[in-house]
Amino acid sequence: MIKNWPILFIVVPLIELYLIIEVGSHIGALWTVLIVIMTAVIGVQLLRIQGFNTLRRAQQSMAQGSLPAMEMMEGIVLAVGGALLITPGFLTDTLGFLCLIPFTRRAMIRRFMSVSSVQMGGFQKQNFGNQPPHRPDSSQSGRTLDGEFRREDD
After folding, report:
1. Is the dihedral of CA 60, 64, 70, 72 positive or negative?
2. CA atoms of 34 and 20, how far apart (whole Å)
3. Does position 136 have pLDDT exceeding 70, yes or no?
4. What does R_g of the chain's alpha carbons equal in angstroms?
5. Whole-angstrom Cα distance, residue 120 to residue 82?
């Protein structure tokens, strides 16, 4: 996958140039530039709102004593979306706006986690979102053992 990154840095700008030229030829250069600037400004405002919402949900999760795993992943996707939105072009703006929509953002995260071999913070793929943690031995579910622990060093 890493070996394909240089191709990405060549192909995406070429697609952006093509789209800007095509749109500019239909609506004019001035309107094209204004649209690109407008999408960046609107995108940054939406990014700010979504970022604060994600931060609030992360704080609520931590206050309840749980790790805000999905919120942390959403923060990463929001940062990528912000970078895409401030990059001039229609393709990057479209991808950036998709990162700002909560439904598509979570779908991207789930897709990434399903194809990724990375497991973050000891969490398995099933633990992202509002799903209960996976228990390998279901015979012990619902059973609580009380006890005390004391460590005795030699």
Report:
1. positive
2. 12
3. no
4. 22
5. 23
Domain ranges for the chain, please list them.
Answer: 2-114
pLDDT tens-digit series, residues 71-125: 999 999 999 999 999 888 999 999 999 999 989 999 999 888 887 755 555 444 4
DSSP 8-state symbol, 129: S
Look at 48 and 152; give whichever has higher pLDDT: 48
Place of tokens 């600037």: 37
CA 49 – CA 51 distance, rounded (Å): 5
Exposure of 150 by Cβ count < 10 A (0-12 exposed, 13-18 middle, 19+ buried)? Answer: exposed
The count of other CB atoms within 10 Å of the CB of residue 28 is 11
* Secondary structure (DSSP) of 64-114: TT---HHHHHHHHHHHHHHHHHHSSSHHHHHHHHHHHSHHHHHHHHHHHHH
Counting beta carbons within 10 angstroms of the beta carbon of residue 78, is it exposed (0 to 12), middle (13 to 18) or buried (19 or more)? buried
Length of the chain: 154
Nearest partner of 19 among 81, 94, 74, judged by Cα: 94
